[in-house]
Structure to design on (370 residues):
């Protein structure tokens, strides 16, 4: 049967009436008080209100054996009222317990209240849930909506409605925004998804491909606008596909999918794909980081960079007057002519292809023969 839910101010007469009503029909009662420091005071108050009741206390700070003894005794009907913290939220199925009173219900989340209420009504008897709020406190709007939802959605099978409202009240989270805890903003979404995929594959015992992670800091808007893909989950899926592309063919597939599903690519999305293509070139070449500094580009190479040292030194010498230099730390500082995003990406690509021209020719020749 559906649980009759009552939202009421904390009142001793109401508590006595609810307890006596349940005890008269031979049932048991949960009283949820989620403050260990005052739980014994509440237990004494209940014993005072209903002297004939057998009252027990259970909370998480009790010893394991003592807590087990109390819970088993309540299950076997040796106690009428169990005053407990939210440790009873899950796992209890006691058919005789069909009344629950929850003190300071405004402090509990919607899903938690729903779980607590689910401890009663597990037989063919009518069950009652009393959500008690303090008389002297004004409820917040969120708390008011939570309690109203519990009172409204008391029929069987209301769990989905509760979950939907909980999602509405608390939100679905913000993975990329300032509210997100952790370091995803500093790491960047592309690297985050790459690290996550690497960790999952490692747990599966799959062999990990060795790829040099390249950081691109170009001062260019590389994003998928909401106007282009409105659904956030779909945007995140496309971001992950772009970040996970292993070659130009993979990027071409993503480009074709977006054009087919969402129409012509806006400028920021084209720049995102071009930057992803540049990242693949950097990883093949052995570039660890590319930074744009006003009219210069700084390229940091790894120790295994596949570039022609002679060609690198020649290019630095030819552009020395314009500020080109190769530092002992393995950073190439090179003048940058372009200012427009597409031109910046093209100029960096041309520079890297020229530095790696010897290897590119060797790689391209077998492909042409095939």
């Amino acid at each position: 049967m559906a649980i009759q839910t009552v939202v009421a101010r904390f009142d001793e007469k109401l508590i006595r009436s609810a307890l006596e009503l349940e005890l008269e029909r031979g049932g048991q009662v949960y009283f949820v008080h989620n403050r260990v420091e005052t739980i014994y005071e509440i237990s004494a108050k209940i014993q005072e209100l209903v002297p004939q009741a057998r009252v027990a206390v259970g909370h998480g700070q009790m010893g394991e054996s003592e807590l087990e003894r109390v819970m088993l005794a309540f299950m076997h009907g040796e106690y009428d009222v169990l005053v407990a913290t939210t440790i009873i939220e899950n796992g209890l199925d006691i058919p005789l317990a069909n009344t629950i009173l929850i003190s300071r219900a405004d402090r509990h989340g919607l899903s938690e209240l729903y779980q607590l209420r689910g401890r009663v009504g597990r037989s063919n008897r009518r069950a009652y849930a009393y959500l008690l709020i303090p008389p002297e406190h004004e409820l917040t709007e969120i708390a008011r909506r939570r309690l109203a939802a519990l009172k409204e959605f008391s029929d069987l099978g209301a769990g989905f409605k509760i979950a939907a409202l909980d999602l509405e009240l608390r939100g679905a989270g913000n993975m990329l925004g300032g509210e997100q805890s952790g370091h995803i903003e500093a790491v960047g979404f592309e690297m985050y998804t790459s690290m996550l995929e690497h960790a999952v594959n490692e747990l599966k015992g799959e062999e990990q491909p060795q790829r040099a992670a390249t950081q691109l800091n170009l001062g260019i808007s590389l994003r998928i606008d909401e106007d282009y893909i409105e659904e956030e989950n779909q945007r995140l899926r496309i971001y992950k596909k772009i970040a996970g592309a292993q070659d130009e063919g993979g990027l071409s597939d993503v480009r074709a999918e977006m054009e087919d599903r969402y129409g012509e690519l806006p400028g920021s999305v084209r720049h995102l794909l071009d930057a992803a293509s540049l990242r693949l070139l950097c990883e093949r070449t052995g570039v660890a980081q590319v930074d744009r500094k006003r009219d210069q580009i700084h390229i940091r190479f790894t120790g295994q960079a596949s570039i022609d040292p002679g060609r690198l030194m020649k290019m630095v010498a030819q552009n020395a007057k314009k500020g080109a230099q190769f530092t002992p730390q393995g950073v190439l500082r090179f003048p940058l002519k372009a200012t427009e995003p597409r031109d910046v990406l093209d100029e960096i690509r041309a520079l890297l292809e020229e530095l790696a021209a010897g290897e590119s020719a060797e790689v391209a020749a077998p492909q042409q023969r095939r």
User: Anything to note?
Assistant: The first strand starts at residue 4 and ends at 9. The two ends are 73 Å apart (CA to CA). The chain has two domains: 4-170, 211-369. The longest helix spans residues 267-285.
